[in-house]
Amino acid sequence: MKRVGKILNDPGYISNLERIEALEDKRIFCKHGAGHSLDVARIACILNIEEMLGYDKEIIYTAAILHDIGRGQGERHEHGQTSADAALLFLREYGYSQEEISLIIDAIKSHSGQQKAKGDGLSSFSDLIFRADKLSRLCFICKSRQECDWPEERKNKELIL
User: Which domains occur in the chain, in start order?
Assistant: First the structure.
């Protein structure tokens, strides 16, 4: 987990998080700061264990802490590619192998795509990060769920994984 720690303490990463927080300062739902990213990491780790997928915890945490980093450039909806581009710099800087980079970048690019139906299973690392990202949202207790622009079928309406 040393590489994750290096990314979390990197001035460029911190600067990106600060920009995201500033851009979302007035936003009342679904913020994308460090807390969200760490929630995604923890949920993905639980799913990884439950589904016996065998992904390395450091790779899960890396993908999770970088999956929304492109929002710092002001991207709102389609930020997968922007996040992947920003993440690539950190991955290269901190010694990730080409295989690790490919796995993480693919997951980041596709994390904001179409939702898989519950029960479809997790057939890839991208599925794992996607599912954890969506499960991190507590729509069923959100004070702004009426104003939310997510379609009803994408909202998490119960605590069950």
Answer: 2-154 (1.10.3210.10)
Please give the Cα distance from 136 to 13 (Å, whole number). Answer: 21
Nearest alpha carbon to residue 36 among 139, 145, 161, 136: 136
> Taking a C-beta distance cutoff of 8 angstroms, is the pair 80, 70 a contact?
yes
- By CB neighbour count within 10 A (0-12 exposed, 13-18 middle, 19+ buried), where does 71 fall? buried
- Report the C-alpha gap between 116 and 131 in whole angstroms: 8
CA distance 100 to 90: 12
**What is the pTM assigned to this prediction?**
0.84
Question: pLDDT per residue over 73-126, tens digit each?
Answer: 755 556 667 888 889 999 999 999 999 999 999 999 876 665 444 445 667 899
Mean pLDDT of 125-148: 83
* Amino acid, res. 161: L
Say how far apart CA 124 and CA 146 lie, in whole Å. 33
